[in-house]
User: Which sequence fits this backbone?
């Protein structure tokens, strides 16, 4: 049996929530309209995170399809007639990225997210994606409860309307103590420093 490959350590991780998305649900068209302008910023943020040596984790709904897997979900969202194909193509996972499927809103609820982050040694997270006022918000709260250093780029998430997005961002800012700023102003050095060994001790002592 081949020996398991040890995960490359990463004191911080970039978490994309529900960006591999088919948008085939009520008001999905509204969400897609708000999401499309976000895609180039997500791509730039991912490139910067990669350059800084951070792990990139895609966390996605399984859309109630318990027999599906990450590859099947990606194929479905990239099919020619998929409404969100343009969005997904711009920011789809690469072979070196991690993919976690979730049953509900938060990236942490009933998923191996805690175990993965422990393996990576990541204690600081950048969280963004869709939708700001549901899955991103829930993930931010769960990250805060677990003691992670939390960074939420305000221009790298989207909701059905600009108002919903702005209200959720303000909630995240005030209720999770996240560092909320524009992605172009986000310092990768600050994110990495927030995920030092002292932070690791405080996070993983709770799990």
Assistant:
């Amino acid at each position: 049996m081949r020996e398991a490959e040890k995960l490359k350590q990463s004191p911080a991780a970039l978490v994309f929530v529900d960006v591999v998305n088919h948008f085939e649900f009520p008001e999905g068209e509204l969400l897609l309209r708000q999401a499309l302008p976000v895609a180039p910023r997500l791509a730039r943020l991912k490139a910067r995170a990669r350059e800084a040596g951070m792990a990139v984790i895609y966390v996605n709904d399984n859309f109630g399809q318990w027999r599906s897997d990450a590859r099947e979900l990606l194929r479905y969202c990239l099919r020619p007639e998929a409404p969100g194909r343009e969005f997904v193509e711009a920011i789809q996972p690469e072979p070196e990225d991690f993919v976690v499927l979730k049953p509900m809103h938060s990236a942490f609820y009933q998923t191996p997210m805690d175990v993965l982050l422990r393996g990576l040694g990541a204690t600081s997270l950048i969280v963004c994606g869709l939708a700001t006022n549901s899955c991103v918000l829930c993930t931010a709260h769960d990250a805060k409860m677990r003691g992670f250093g939390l960074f939420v780029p305000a221009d790298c998430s989207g909701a059905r309307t600009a108002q919903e997005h702005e209200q959720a961002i303000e909630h995240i800012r005030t209720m999770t103590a996240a560092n909320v700023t524009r992605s172009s102003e986000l310092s990768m050095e600050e994110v990495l420093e927030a995920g030092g060994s002292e932070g690791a001790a405080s996070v993983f002592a709770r799990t």
About this structure: The domain at 12-204 is CATH 3.40.50.850 (Rossmann fold). The longest strand covers residues 55-61. The radius of gyration is 16 Å.
